[in-house]
Design a protein that fits this description.
By secondary structure, the protein is mainly alpha-helical. It has seven helices and no strands. The chain folds into two domains: about 1-90, no CATH class; about 95-163, Arc Repressor Mutant, subunit A, CATH 1.10.10.10. It has helices spanning about 1-30, 30-45, 55-90, 100-105, 110-120, 125-135, 135-160. Helix 5 (about 110-120) crosses helix 6 (about 125-135), helix 5 crosses helix 7 and helix 6 packs across helix 7 (about 135-160).
């Protein structure tokens, strides 16, 4: 029994790790961090191996949560550096905002961010996103629509401010 469990885990790792790490790489823009996140997601899966019904979904949701924590940490660090530098240097009157999609996705509420990450970045169909998140398909579709509208509005505002 133990041998087949280890073999199943090994096969799952071989099948999913490269794609999960690549997905994380697109989100965090750093190879080392992406591999750390993917490895941590697998570590958490292994700890719950016998109780996880959908390992692929578990891995992507776990990785999305770790990415969110990574983004939060980077934002705290950015703000701290910004505070320190503004105390010692006179700042220009206006500062252009960064309209990068990654930052915009990061700014979404979790209820909207997770479906966006799973559907568009992990290429999961709406049906699978619904199963992984425990929501109805219609709710996932509505959340994806709401997220796209928010992203569109944020991007529009960001571009208006840079002109």
């Amino acid at each position: 029994m133990k041998r087949s469990r280890e073999q199943a885990a090994s096969e799952l790792f071989a099948a999913l790790y490269p794609r999960l790490a690549g997905w994380c790489r697109r989100l965090v823009d750093d190879d080392e961090t992406a591999h750390e996140i993917a490895s941590e997601a697998f570590t958490r899966l292994w700890a719950r191996w016998t109780s996880v019904a959908e390992p692929r979904g578990f891995l992507y949701v776990t990785a999305a949560n770790i990415v969110r924590d990574h983004w939060r940490r980077l934002e705290r660090e950015r703000k701290a550096v910004h505070r320190v530098t503004t105390e010692t240097v006179v700042r220009p009157h206006t500062e252009p905002s960064d309209p990068s999609v990654r930052l915009l996705v990061q700014s979404l509420p979790e209820r909207l961010r997770v479906p966006i990450l799973l559907h568009y970045y992990a290429d999961m169909p709406v049906r699978e996103v619904a199963a992984v998140t425990g929501r109805k398909e219609g709710t996932v579709k509505a959340d994806l629509h709401a997220a796209r509208e928010l992203l569109r509005a944020h991007l529009r505002r960001s571009l208006d401010h840079t002109r």
